[in-house]
């Protein structure tokens, strides 16, 4: 079969996009954090969500995943609602969102990625541990499998979180600031995983904070500042005008 | 003590008290582990204190002093307080400690008011309700132990069944939600099970001290292990043994209250764990740090001795000059290196021993990996040119 695009998982001629957000508004108290967000992410893309502090980047991911209530709007995944598509969605929360002194090992955390598939009451067994080890291998963390998680460096903890999401074996991934405050080795490991995922035709939506690297690392860009400023292929969206609109006039950037 | 331990099997009262305290400690340890990991250990304190008005209301409404009726009343009030507390935290900007303080004292104050009202009423049946403040284990009869065992068994069975879910709930509730689990419902369930643990303890340790039986065994267990499963089991063991030991101690003499002794036993376990648990224990931490400091200090001296050995003469005089210390200090330093097998004396001359050479080379290798300081005009301590003295 001849494929027009390198998208092995989407042989269907008119597939529904992995993520389609319509009129999404989120408000804490009076002020809206997200206002009327429309967003379509095409399949097989590495998509960055970029914007200034307080632009609602993390909120967008959390609202899309139903982790915080939305004031209005609809979200469809592969044309289905969240409940139906849940098993196809993986999530990497911000590293700082948990207490790393929790009594558990790196391997244990990765096994948690399989809890969704296991379902109620069933305990992880040998099969799940092997699967988790494979995911740790993918992020070069196999040697640390049995370490208590507080004894890992920040970058290593980030890779454990990434491995946990890989264990979910999803078609669509959301990652909240995976590159924040990590070392060079971890940066490499994450980039490698991102490209592997893309190679498998999976879609990855990443909240990113660094404008300098966003162009090289991602194919698709959404500029966000409460509203969507621009969204589309990197080459079309990454323009001085759009960046100014998102970050304000004083934004200095050497393009 | 051993006489008393054997009495557990023969003495009816002691057996009931010890069993009751053991169940309370075990169940409290398990649920306390989750509560402390979810940073809700003080929530246990709120709901324990809040049980008092519930007990009084249960008595007023039913006119009965059947323990189960009173415990259910206390449990319901505690449960209401816990949920109210969580709701306040979710929807107001009140800081957690303020919310906690207000909630605890208002529920407890209400309880004391009700208790005083009941005591001054003409009802002759009321005597003994105040025992729930500090607990009175001696009133525990076999039927109470059965009640406790059933309640505790149910709570533990649910924890065992939902262990995986509760684990992730305690570690990363948001991720648990993203997997499709009803995080809020599971959280409410786990808090409700904590209420059950408190109910079990009301008769023995009372509302004021009950929180200790949630926090202490868990805090002690955390010191000994880095795995949740082991921590939960260990907390159960610590709690249960505190119960038995406290009960036996209080039976060893007249007028020793059981509840406070159970709590004191648990506290002793905490203190011992804080100091002596391997890895996390303070004593071992101090020992490790002192050892490390000594090792690093000696290694620093060794590097100087190594430079002197290679580029001049190793003697107390040259070492004192190089390290800007006095002669006696330098001599002492050389002797310390000798004690490590790093230096030796031959015919009155100081030499670097092979072990010292090897160690110094390895250290220099490691230090090459450190960031260089020369660029800013600081001379590296390992720089070979130092041999010129």
Features:
heterodimer; A: 255 residues; alpha/beta; three-stranded antiparallel beta sheet; 33% helix; disordered N terminus; B: 389 residues; mainly alpha; two-stranded antiparallel sheet; 2 strands; disordered C terminus
Task: Count up the helices of chain A.
Answer: 10
What overall geometry of chain A do the principal axes of the alpha carbons give? globular
> Strand fraction band of chain B?
under 5%
Task: Pick out the low-confidence regions of chain B.
Answer: 375-389
Biggest protein-protein contact in the assembly: A-B, 29 and 27 residues
Main sheet overview of chain A: 6 strands, mixed
The helix count of chain B comes to 16
- Order of strands in the sheet with the most strands of chain A? 5-6-7-3-8-9
State the distance separating the first and last CA atoms of chain B: 70 Å
Number of strands of chain B: 2
Shape of chain B: elongated
Class by SSE composition of chain B: mainly alpha
Amount of beta strand of chain A: 15-25%
Share in helix of chain A: 25-40%
Q: Largest beta sheet of chain B, briefly?
A: 2 strands, antiparallel
| Topology, number of strands of chain A | 9
In short:
The complex is a heterodimer of chains A (255) and B (389). Chain A is an alpha/beta fold.
Question: How is this structure best described in words?
Answer:
The complex is a heterodimer of chains A (255) and B (389). In chain A, 33% of the residues lie in helices and 23% in strands. Chain A has 255 residues and is of the alpha/beta class. In chain A, helix 5 packs across helix 6 and helix 6 (154-167) packs parallel to helix 7. Mean pLDDT of chain A is 90; it is low at 1-8. Chain B is mainly alpha-helical and 389 residues long. Chain B has 16 helices and 2 strands. Chain B has a two-stranded antiparallel sheet with strand order 1-2. The radius of gyration of chain B is 31 Å and the shape is elongated. Mean pLDDT of chain B is 88; it is low at 375-389. Chains A and B meet through helix 4 of A and helix 8, helix 9 and helix 11 of B.
């Amino acid at each position: 079969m001849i494929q027009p695009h390198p998208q092995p998982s989407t042989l269907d001629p008119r597939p529904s996009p992995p993520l389609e957000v319509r009129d999404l508004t989120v408000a804490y108290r009076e002020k809206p954090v997200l206002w009327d967000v429309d967003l379509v992410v095409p399949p097989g893309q590495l998509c960055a969500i970029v914007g200034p502090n307080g632009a609602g980047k993390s909120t967008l991911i959390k609202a899309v995943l139903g982790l915080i209530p939305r004031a209005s709007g609809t979200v469809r995944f592969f044309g289905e609602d969240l409940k139906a598509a849940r098993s196809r969605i993986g999530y990497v929360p911000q590293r700082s969102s948990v207490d790393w002194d929790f009594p558990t090992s790196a391997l244990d955390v990765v096994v948690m990625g399989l809890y969704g598939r296991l379902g109620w009451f069933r305990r992880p067994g040998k099969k799940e541990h092997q699967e988790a080890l494979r995911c740790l291998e993918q992020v070069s963390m196999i040697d640390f499998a049995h370490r208590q998680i507080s004894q890992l460096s920040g970058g290593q903890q980030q890779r454990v979180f990434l491995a946990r999401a890989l264990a979910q074996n999803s078609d669509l991934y959301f990652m909240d600031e995976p590159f924040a405050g990590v070392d060079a080795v971890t940066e490499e490991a994450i980039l490698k995983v991102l490209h592997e995922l893309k190679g498998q035709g999976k879609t990855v939506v990443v909240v990113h904070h660094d404008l300098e690297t966003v162009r090289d690392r991602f194919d698709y860009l959404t500029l966000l500042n409460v509203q969507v400023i621009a969204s589309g292929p990197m080459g079309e969206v990454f323009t001085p005008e759009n960046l100014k609109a998102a970050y304000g006039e004083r934004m200095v950037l050497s393009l | 003590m051993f006489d008393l331990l054997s009495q557990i099997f023969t003495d009816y009262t002691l057996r009931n008290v010890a069993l009751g305290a053991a169940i309370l400690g075990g169940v409290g340890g398990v649920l306390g582990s989750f509560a402390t990991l979810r940073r809700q250990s003080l929530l246990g304190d709120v709901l324990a204190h809040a049980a008092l008005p519930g007990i009084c209301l249960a008595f007023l409404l039913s006119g009965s002093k059947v323990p189960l009726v009173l415990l259910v009343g206390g449990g319901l009030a505690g449960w209401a307080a816990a949920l109210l507390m969580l709701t306040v935290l979710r929807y107001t900007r009140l800081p957690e400690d303020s919310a906690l303080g207000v909630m605890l004292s208002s529920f407890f104050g209400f309880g004391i008011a009700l208790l005083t009202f009941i005591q001054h009423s003409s009802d002759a049946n009321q005597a003994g309700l105040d025992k729930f403040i500090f607990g009175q284990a001696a009133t525990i009869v076999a039927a109470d132990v059965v009640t406790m065992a059933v309640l505790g068994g149910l709570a533990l069975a649910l924890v065992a069944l939902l262990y995986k879910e509760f684990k992730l709930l305690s570690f990363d509730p948001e991720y648990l939600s993203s997997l499709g689990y009803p995080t809020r419902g599971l959280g409410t369930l786990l808090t409700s099970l904590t209420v059950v643990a408190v109910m079990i303890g009301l008769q023995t340790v009372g509302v004021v001290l009950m929180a200790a039986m949630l926090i202490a065994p868990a805090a002690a267990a955390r010191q000994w292990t880095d795995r949740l499963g082991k921590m939960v089991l260990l907390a159960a063991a610590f709690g249960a043994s505190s119960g038995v030991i406290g009960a036996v101690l209080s039976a060893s003499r007249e007028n020793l209250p059981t509840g406070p002794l159970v709590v004191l036993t648990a506290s002793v376990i905490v203190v011992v764990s804080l100091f002596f648990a391997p890895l996390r224990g303070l004593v071992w931490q101090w020992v490790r740090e002192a050892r490390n400091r000594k090792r690093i200090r000696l290694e620093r001296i060794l590097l100087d001795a190594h430079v002197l050995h290679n580029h001049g003469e190793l003697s107390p005089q040259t070492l004192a000059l190089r390290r800007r210390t006095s002669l006696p200090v330098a001599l002492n330093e050389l002797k310390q290196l000798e004690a490590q097998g790093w230096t030796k004396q031959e015919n009155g001359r100081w030499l670097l021993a092979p072990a010292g050479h090897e160690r110094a080379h390895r250290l220099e290798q490691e230090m090459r990996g450190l960031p260089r300081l020369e660029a800013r005009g600081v001379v590296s301590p390992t720089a070979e040119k130092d041999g010129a003295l």
